[in-house]
Amino acid sequence: MKTFVSLICLLFFICTAQAQDSAENNGRQNTSITSTKKVKVFPNPASNVVNILGLENTDKAHISIMDIYGNTVLIYEWEIRRNAINIPIPSLDSGVYTVTVNSKEQKVCVKFYKQ
C-alpha cells in the first residue's frame, strides 16, 4: 500500500512539474525575465536534508515548507550565502513538499519528495 501511495505521489509530482514548466514558459513570452538562473534541488527524493542551489545571496530569507495540501509544516528565516541553502527535514513524513524562498531579491518555489 505504501508503494502504491508513493507511486501516486510521484506521478502527481511529475505531472504538476511539467504543467508548471509549460505555464512558466507561456508566461515568459509576455514578461521580461529578470533572472535566468536555474534553481536546483537535491537530493530528490531526500531523507534528512534538502539542498537548494542557484539562489540570490541575502541577509534575510523567509523559507517555508508546505505539504501537498497547502499546510505549512516548517518555517525558517535564514541568511543565504554562497547562493545555496541546506534545509533539515528529518521530522517530515514521506511525501511531496513545496519549498518557498522569499526575500527582497527573489521569490522561488520548488518541489521535492521526502522518502
Description:
With 115 residues, the chain is an alpha+beta fold. It has a single domain (2-114), classed as Immunoglobulin-like, CATH 2.60.40.3080. The protein is built from 1 helix and 7 strands, in the order αβββββββ. It has one helix spanning 2-28; strands at 40-42, 49-53, 58-67, 72-80, 84-88, 95-102, 107-114. Strands 4-3-6-7 form a 4-stranded antiparallel sheet. A hairpin with a 4-residue loop joins β6 and β7. The two termini are 15 Å apart. Keywords: Signal. Residues 1-19 form the signal peptide. It holds the Pfam family Por_Secre_tail.
Lay out the secondary structure:
Blueprint: H1 2-28, E1 40-42, E2 49-53, E3 58-67, E4 72-80, E5 84-88, E6 95-102, E7 107-114
Antiparallel strand pairs: 1-2, 2-5, 3-4, 3-6, 6-7
**Distance, first to last CA:** 15 Å
Percent of residues in β-strands: 35-45%
Largest sheet: 4 strands, antiparallel
Strand order of the largest sheet: 4-3-6-7
What's the mean pLDDT score?
A: 79
Question: What sequence of helices (H) and strands (E) makes up the elements?
Answer: HEEEEEEE
Number of helices: 1
Any idea what the CATH architecture is?
A: Sandwich
- What's the oligomerization state? single chain
Proportion of residues in helical segments: 10-25%
Shape: globular
Poorly predicted runs are: 17-36
Task: Estimate nothing, just give the exact number of structural domains.
Answer: 1
The CATH topology label is Immunoglobulin-like
Total number of β-strand segments? 7
CATH class term: Mainly Beta
* Rg from alpha-carbon coordinates: 15 Å
Secondary-structure-based class equals alpha+beta
InterPro entries: Secre_tail
Signal peptide: 1-19
Pfam family, one: Por_Secre_tail
Domain Secretion system C-terminal sorting: 41-111
